[in-house]
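Section: Multi-chain targets

For targets with more than one molecule, the full set of components is provided together so that the structure can be written out for the assembly as a whole rather than chain by chain. Components appear in the order listed by the source. The example entry contains two components.
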Amino acid sequence: MTTTFEPNTITTTPKRTTTISRRLPAVGVVALLILALVAPYYFYPFLLMKLMCMALMAASFNLLFGYGGMLSFGHAAFIGSAAYIAGYAAKEMHLSPILAIILGMAAATVVGWLFGLVAIRRRGIQFAMITLALAQLVYFIFLQAPFTHGEDGLQDIPRGTVLGFLNLGNSLTMYYFILAFTVAGFLFVYRMVNSPFGQVVIAIRDNEARATSLGYNVHGYKLAVLMIAAAIAGLGGALKALLFQIATLNDATYLASTEVVIVAVVGGIGTMVGPIAGAAAVVGLDWFFAESEFPVMVINGLVFMACVLLFRQGIVGTIAAAFEKRRAQGTEESKDA
Amino acid sequence: MNDLFNALLPQFFLGLVNGSIYALLSVGLTVIFGLLRIVNFVHGAQFMVGAFLSYLLLVYFGIGFWWSLVIAPLVVGLASAAIERTMISRLYNIDHMYGLLFTLGLTLVLEGLFRYWFGSAGRAYVVPESLSGVVNLGFMYFPRYRLFVVVASVVLCLGTWLLIERTRAGSYLRAAHENPQLLRTFGINVSLLLTATYAFGAALAAVAGTLAAPIYQVGPFMGTHIMVVVFAIVVIGGMGSVKGTIAASFLLGIAETVTKIAFPQAASMAVFVIMAALLVLRPEGLFGRQESTR
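Its structure, encoded as tokens over all components, is:
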């Protein structure tokens, strides 16, 4: 097979980000932040918190696939292990929520490292199939392990208090707690992608052989990205465990992995805010169809199929492309005048 | 020694039965991947639909197993051909991962719809009367139906292999795999070939579903776990090699059930552990050549 990877189809190229107005993204980010700060007063905080957890998981997938070129079908393993470990730490070890989250992320990172040892040498579709199989293996381990309580899962995980006075049992406090972690997570991803490290990762995605010939330790870089992505997915999983106060096998099934894939692809692969837009779309659909009899799974599947067929750039990618088109037309017109 | 032998033998044959189902699924998956370069994620759902169609034919129309074995694959094959023509064929010119993503969406739709219509509970499909009872193999008794499944799977898999390696149609397939543009200049309708291949692979999944209906429970999610197992098998078999895939299917089916004797809890993990071990120890795959998939 000699088909080459086509970065244009899944990512906004550097060229596009430089031509698009530099101010527009900054204004958008500030608006989004303000919106996030006031949102819980106007909309169900619980749904918004769920949205942020999903956005973090999708940001992890996006980092791995959109920037690292590794299509993971095994995110459930990272999410599930972080949820179980964070839940166990908070409930059985009575640790503070922040410590529980850190332990959960550490567990996810270890799982990511193990996945890397097995799968990192395989690319593209094989990587996807292998991560799917490994995640299923992790699922069975959780099914058998005594500390997960099998089918029941960990129930009544305490949210606890932060710094001794912020009671996370309060839903608004919990909201800002999760928001802080989400902002930190996205900032981290943004800084990483735009760092020299991130540029090498993108270079490896675009042409692994050339990056190798330039002397980069390709497998080392890929393993590092995989572990970082696992940690971020773990952050989402740990927060979700504290939010729902349960950690169950549902977090570890292949459907949990597919949900992450859907959120990331619908939002827009290779874009920074894509995961947020995707999470908003999926949570919104979920909420809209919650009352009706019709299964959300089918709606999600249909949206996803349409997205892959018609809007491969996702919500954010499509909007960005439309903006750029208008901008290109605008500059042409001004030239004519 | 004799005790061990007596314990191993039934598990060995059970493994053959599971391996038969795996083989039918993984061969279809491999044939589709070999030509279309698409990992058909919906293969497990097509397997499920095949089983469900047989079940519905029996319950609502009184149509028995043998007719189902023809009708279910035909329906699934035709429906899949329509899907390939209208949708999947649009994805050939872009990154192959989109084929995987698209079929993932299709899987959610199919499984969601069947759960909506029929609930998640498993339903039993009665073993056809002509195949009920047991057969004396000389050294042990074995259910006649399961023996039939093994024989049917071996015949179909070998048939598929011969079709690809030994017939003119198969030579077109191999040529389309190597260089579709050149084959087109010879006046071969390559897009029809792709559609036919996809329909054939999907129909094999439906055959597997019909064969599996009396063994496993018929339910909307019967295809999900088996799908992941088959993915692992295809990776072990070396992606794209029909022969390697058939061998890996039967070997892993047996490995799975034999593990059950030593470590009952680990049986469902066996395939994945073997896959992981193999990827670490023999990165080129069990049966030689590793193909780049991109």
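Chain A touches chain B through 49 residues (CB under 8 Å).
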